[in-house]
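Task card 7
Instruction: Convert sequence to C-alpha cells.
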Amino acid sequence: MPDSRDIFGMRREGNSQGALDLARELYAEDQNDLWLIRAYGWSLHDCLKIARDNNNTALLTQLAEEFAKLNIPDDEDDELLLNAKNNWQQYLPTNNGGPAVATLLDQGRQASQNNNRQEALRIFRNVVEQAPDNNQAATSLAWEITRGLKDLLQADNVDADAIQGLLREYARLENIDKPSNLHSLVLRRAAKAAQKESFPGFIRFLQWWDTANLMPGDYERIIDNRDADKSYDSCVELIIKGLHKAADHEQDSDTIRWASAFMAQHYNEYPNQEWFEYYYGKMLVRTGDLEHARNLIMPIVRKKKREFWAWDNLAATYTDSDGNKRLSCLCKALTCKVPKEAFLMNVRVELGELLAELGQHPEARFEIDKVINIRSSNEWKIPQQLQDIQASDWYEQASPPDSNKDLYKEYSPNADALIYEDLPELPGIVVHSLKPREGKAGVTFVGYLSEGVYHEAGTKTKDHNCLKSIKHGAPVSIQIDDSSDRTFVLAVKHRDADPWDILPPHTGIIKHVNYDKGITNVVLGRDDFCLLHHDKFADIKTEQPGTAVQVKITKDEKRGILRAHAWQLTTELPDESFCKEYSGVLEVHESGRFAFIDHDVFIAGKHIEGHALSTGDEVQGKALLELNKKKNQYGWSAITIEKI
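Output:
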C-alpha cells in the first residue's frame, strides 16, 4: 500500500500534481499520520508555486485555501512547512472580501517601480492595516518608506514634517527584522535628515532604534563600485554627524549624556574625519566636561580663527572662575566678519548677559539693544529671554554707549593669546610666496625647524600682517598646528636673526657657468646640484668652475630639485666622495678628442684644446664623480686643468 514515502518520491521525480493527488487520497483515510501531513503540505507548496508562475489565480486561491485547512502541528521540526503555509495565506482574499495580500503587494511594487511613491505608500499601508501580522507587508512598507525618505532628502526644499512623519510611521511598524540591512538603511536616512536639520528628535530616535542593532558593516565606509578610491560615510559616521546637529535641539541632560557616550566610543575610529573631535568637544560642553571639551575644540578654533562661531564655542568652555577668558572669546567673536549682522545675535545675547553679571550694565544693554533692533527691523519675534532682560532693573537704569568697539579692542587680544599659549614658537624663514590671482588668495611659504627637522608650510598672506611686505629669507617665529595631515600656520612674527639662518650651508663646487642662459651650476654631491640664476645672484657669474662655494638650499619635493637661496665663497673643500684634486701625466686618446690621467680621471676634449695639451704633459686640477649614462657607472671627470 502506498504511503508518504511514495509521495516524496514523486516530488523528487518532478511529478508535483501526481504527488498532490496521492497525498489527498491518503490523507482522506488517515489525518493523523505526521509524515503524511508533511508530504501533503509540501506537495501543496510545489503546486502553489506552479500556479503562481503560470498566473493561474483561481487555482492559486483554491490551493491556498486547501493549504490553510491543513492542520500542521506547531513543532520545531515543521517550522519551514509552517512558514510556507503562512506565506501562501497572503494569496487568499481578505476577510472583508478584498484582494489578496499578495495581489496588493504586487500592486504596491509596481507603483514603486513606476516611481509613484505616494500610491505605493498608500497600497502598502492598506496591506499592513489588513494584515498587521504579515512580515512581508510590514517589510514592503518599510522599504517604501526608505525610498520616500531618499526622495525627500534629495529635494531642493527639504520637507522636515514629511520626513519626521515617515520616520514615526516606521517606528510604529511591527514584524521588522532587527538587526537587518533595512533597519540600518532607515537609520542612515534618519541621520542624514538630522544633518540637514530636518530631524531634531534624532537622538531619541536613535535610542529607540537601539545601537545594539548595529551590524559590522555599519562601522565600515562604503566603497564606490565604480571607483575603488572613492568611498562614502559609514552608518556610524553619519550617526555622529547627525548627533552633532540634533544636540542643539535636545534639552534633556540624560539624553545628551547618552549621545556623548556614543560619540566617545566611536569618534576616534575615523581619523580622516577632522571635525569629529570638534563635534565631541561641543557635546562635552553640554555634559560639563569643559577642560576636555576645550582640548578638542581648540584645534578647530586655531584653524578657523576668522570665524565667529569658533570663538563662541571656545567661550563655552570657560566659566566665571577662568577670569575674563569667556569674555575675551565673545569679544573676539564680535570682531569677525559675517555676511549678516543677524549671525551674531546669539553671541551678543551671551555677551550681554555676561556683562550684566560682571556689573558692566551700559555695555550689556548695548549688546541686548543691538539684538532687539535686528529682530525688530526684520519683523522677527522678540523671545521671552530678551523680554525678561528688558524688564530687569539694571536694563532700565543703564545708558548704553554708542559702541562697544573699545571693549572688543581691550579683550580680543587676550583671546588670541589663549589659542597660542600652549604652542612653542619655532624658528622659521620666509621661503617664497605666490601673489593673489584669479580670485585665489596670495600664499606665503614658511620654512621652520621642529625638533631639528626642516619643514615647510603655506599660509594665506593676508592672515598675517608681518607677511604682507617681507623679503624672502627674512627670519620669523611661527606657531603651528600639525595635529592633522595638513599643517596650519597660526601665528607669525618677526625674529631678530640673519636671513636664511635656519638653513645649513652646503659646500659645493662650481661645475659650469652658462653666460648665455645666465646660470651657474653648483654640484653639491654625487647626484645633487643646484642652479644659481644670475638675475637673482648677480655676483656668482664672475666665479669660475672649480671655485668652492657654500649654498643654502631647500628641496622642491614636487619637482624633485634643489633650490638655492643664498651663497658665499668658502675655503672649505667639498666632500671627497664627489670632488677631489688630482695630478698626473696626461695620456691623450689617438682620436685626440679626450684623455685620461692615470686611467682614472677623464679629460674632455675642450680642456685639451683650450690648454694645448698633449700626451706626457703633467697636469693638475679638480674632478667630479659623475655618472656615465652610456656605461651606467660613475667615474671621475675633470672640471679644471692646468699644466704643472
